[in-house]
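Handoff note, outgoing to incoming analyst
You'll be picking up this chain. Sequence as last confirmed:
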Amino acid sequence: MPLEHPRSHPPALLRAALRVLQFGGSAVVLAALPYPLFELDRYTFPKELILEVVAVWAGLLCLASARRITVLAADVLLGAFLLVSLISVLTAANGWLAFRAIGVSLAGAAVFWCGRAIGRTELRDALLGAIAAAVVLGALTALAQAYGVVTTNLASLTRAPGGTFGNRNFMAHLVTIGSPVLLLVCLEAKGRVRFAAGALGVVLVAAALVLSRSRAAWLGAGVCGAFLAVEGLWIGRLWTDDRLRRRVVLLAGAVGLGLALALGLPNKLNWRSESPYLDSLAGVANFREGSGRGRLVQYGNTLGMVADHALLGVGPGNWPVYYPRYRSPADPSFDGGDILPTNPWPSSDWIAVLAERGLVALLLLMLLGGSIALGAWARIRHGSRAAPALPDLAIAATLLAVAVVGAFDAVLLLPIPAFFVWTTIGALASTARPVREIPLTSGSRRQLLIGAGIIGTLFLFRSTAQTAAMGLYSTGNRGAMELASRLDPGSYRIHMLLGLTWMESGRCDRARPHGVRARELFPNHPAPHQILRVCGSGKRN
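Most recent structure output, in case you need it:
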């Protein structure tokens, strides 16, 4: 639903939406909570809350200032994907997880449309600059942890150097996906000072990417770089432009400097191998052992789930609910001794969408990304050589990075990539032929604002409640911990922790309700059944 605004002199409300998105880029990177009991949740919950706050706030501002709605082919595909996703919620066994997953998808669509509205005005460069700066900020948090510059309990020690992402792979995903827009900002920079600042950011991003040892991110960055070299420098003939050639050479040097610093400077990372980076590089295509083999096993098991739920999937966010039923013996991605025996997401966006939302949703998402990427590629190939299509190169490279990284890890399912990918593509997407233009009267605008406000408030209330519940539980006070379970009744972790705590205290009367609730949320997980086997008779007190 791209909102139409005048190209020059954008309205004050649209400028305010720009400020919200600029703030959101940095805030979603930095948001984290010091509650180690909740591991990944203490990063994903506050980031989801920031994403939804930004989506609602910016979306209402853009909608309030819009004169009409211009519907493009990409918007039809995105709307159809969201509709199928909403229908698939009806199949979900765990409605709380489905609500969370749909919230991320709707927020991503909102920032996409806001990015589109801002990208059609003179404010585009300011938005892209803020996105690039936030990508560098994310790299900085990882480097600060890697070199011991800043020590804080907000960073996860077991997944370093993840910085405020909580996981080194998540950090690496962002810097890989955000690199094309960072390079674009550098190449389009007005003045040497801005270019120098951007080049420094490239050094930091390259160093953080190396230190991450994320093979999916390395592969995505390599494919992205090859595409930019072939389509931009060779076929696109950008090398013939003196100014661009000088900047490309300097940026290539910045990448090399980042690699050298990462490999040469001593850091605080405790790798088990004597040659960790070489080992990771050698293992990029290794699917016979380690995480590569684990992914193949997980994909094969998940396809069994897909076969049983092909049309609408098992419901958004519900892959971990069903996966234990389909796991194979000696599955390395399943730990039956943990209260959470699987990751919250499968190790692939595309497998996740197929399993959770069905084949139709996956096809629509692929058509959406493919149509935008191919449209940008066509403009690159047929554009004027005197006016290089740098934004189109950035669009295609970003989507290529998403496709590659998303094939091996969860990306668009998470709040940080969702914010950056959708906002970036929205801001960069060129104007296409409209499918339909819908004028907005004051009455229709008011109705849309009320509807969007109500829907947004529901998601904000849910995200706020689950974030606050972590804080309450982490106080250690039994009363506050019980209140946390009521504030966030969909928290399997809180119910399990309370159930185990009460059981170990000999209070099965208090443990049993939490075990029952945990079993309802994740009926295929073994841990709730263990509580109920001990406390099921109700004889202990």
